[in-house]
């Protein structure tokens, strides 16, 4: 069960130099500064960044004069490829409803790279997404970080698994009525405790067998679930907890305290109501979707001010569309509206780049313009936090894969450009 983590982006090597633009580098020590310079990408990775970077002969040049140059955006919670828009039952591979506790399920096994949402992501400068199972089940399955350009899942996979998705609250309660899962909040919490206790027993049995030189039988389905959860308990992968209401957020923290795993809160709609608890634990928060109505009771306190309140308290905040709940091309619009409601503009850019990369454990690959990271570079017509700005050029892993010249075009597998 080693993580899929290719040393280089799939496909042939790509070199490009983005020259003449104003760099917004978003490295960990970034403090809002912008400077003119060049981003040189060699063999799919950023080789050099800054003013005066020489461009070797033969390296294609992308002119960004008068434009802003940023790293590709990262959406830390989507259902791209597993929940296609407008296709009803046919496009819904997001919830395996017969598995209330399905840790062995893998989101990337259900991804359709032809989902139109991937192209929409490129048009908004989103080059990396986390793809999660849905929230119908208490344990939905394993999650993956994917590129938004590619023709096969293997070509798109950046790293997997990066976490395990779990849900508290309304959605698993409703689904439990048909799946045989728990139908109350106390039942959901008990189910999670049972699952982690089973993982602890599985680990203990395996260690005893190895110590005694006993052969290990192939694991059963339930043991394969326990094997995945054992990795969560060991801190190898994070626990990505769907929680909207304040009491569900507190339950998520309570369970994490009991079992000692690394917790990442997703949605966090009422995070401002338990802000002291989140600050005490220093928990990262993937906030959103913001551009929705209050369509169910859990969302009655939804507010675009929440990201700003959490970030101002010192928490690491990422923004999400929860695509297709909100179309992914509206990720920068979500950030702009959060700024309108109090989120610091620099923090808003971090919430689209470095912060989600750190939260997902992929900041060694994406999230900033720094040597050694993947060549994911976006040239913007203006400030991304201005809703009229657009991504003019998108480079993914050193490939120029999207461009705007009066209309959006995407790089096709045969190397030609096609209308979006």
Automatic annotation (TrEMBL):
One Gene Ontology molecular-function label: hydrolase activity, acting on carbon-nitrogen (but not peptide) bonds
Stretches the record annotates as Disordered: 167-186, 203-222
One of the Pfam families matching this protein, by short name: Amidohydro_1
Protein name per UniProt: Amidohydrolase
InterPro entries from the UniProt entry: Amidohydro-rel, Metal-dep_hydrolase_composite, Metal_Hydrolase, Metallo-dep_Hydrolase
Annotated ranges, domain Amidohydrolase-related: 288-384
Organism in which the protein naturally occurs: Kineococcus radiotolerans (strain ATCC BAA-149 / DSM 14245 / SRS30216)
